[in-house]
Amino acid sequence: MIVAELERALLARYPKTDAEPWDHAGLSVGDPDDEIRGVACALDATRDNVQRALEAGSNVLLTHHPIYIKAPEAFCPPSATRPQCSAALYEAARCGVSIISLHTNLDRSHEARVRLSELLGAEPMSSLEHVNEPELTGLGALATLHDFCNLRNLAVRAATAFGSDPRVWGEADHPCRTAAILGGSLGDFGELAIASGADVIVTGEAGYHVAQDLALRGLPVILLGHDRSEEPFVDILMNSAVDAGVDPRHAIKILDPCQWWTVTKGENL
To answer: Which residues contact 216 (CB under 8 A, 6 or more apart)?
Structure first.
């Protein structure tokens, strides 16, 4: 199997038309005609992960986050004066590692919706984008929790499931039955969560004023951290690569530790 065949199969499953216009999905660096020796799946396309892929015998790094949204001005060795994607691209090209990313097109998939819901012990009903059309792909998930709980209990469950030390906005005893779930950044999806009738929204990150506003309007917010909320997508990447025809013996996961820490929880590096 060559790189182009893998990319074609993945984009057939997660179409570029499902990606945001600003996004960069698909192959970003590498030779489409290279024979695949191994595929390493990770959340981020960093220089370290390029090296980890190479050390594992993989010449393809399949990631959720693209290596860049806007291409850097140059591909150069690591430097504090340049964005890290410059060094990651340089390293990938130097070592012959192709990088393929499935970002907002994967975010909109049924697989992402189901995975996020399952981790919270919930049954997905629809995306947040298309609440009244559950069969459509879309960003986020509206899900019914299998058991009624309060905000404190749901936050503890989320912390365990996602390996996070979340920040929580809202009253601890607020009842939760229907959850809106969105990996990554909340953006303006809080408005969709309110319109959907959700009792709580679980997401990666949100600005202070956004989270405050939602909580004061009666919608509690659980902030897991951007990376923690999307690390489970690495499993989806792995399964998708194998389904596309990659030998399972030559497919690995690179699971990154939490990239940040809190004083109460301690370092998790």
So the answer is: none
38: closest CA among 246, 255, 254? 246
pLDDT tens digit sequence for 101-137? 999 999 999 999 999 999 999 999 999 999 999 999 9
Q: Which residue has the tokens 């060559």?
A: 2
CB 94 within 8 A of CB 59: no
pTM over 0.85: yes
Return the amino acid letter for 140: G
Backbone angles phi, psi at 166, to 5 degrees: -70, 155
Q: Is residue 178 packed enough to be buried (19+ CB in 10 Å), middle (13-18) or exposed (0-12)?
A: middle
Q: Which helix (H) or strand (E) holds 148?
A: strand 141-150
User: How would DSSP label each residue in 182-244?
Assistant: EEEE-TTHHHHHHHHT-SEEEEEE--HHHHHHHHHTT--EEE--HHHHHTTHHHHHHHHHHHT
d(Cα 171, Cα 177) in Å, to the nearest integer? 15
pLDDT over 70 percentage in the chain: 98
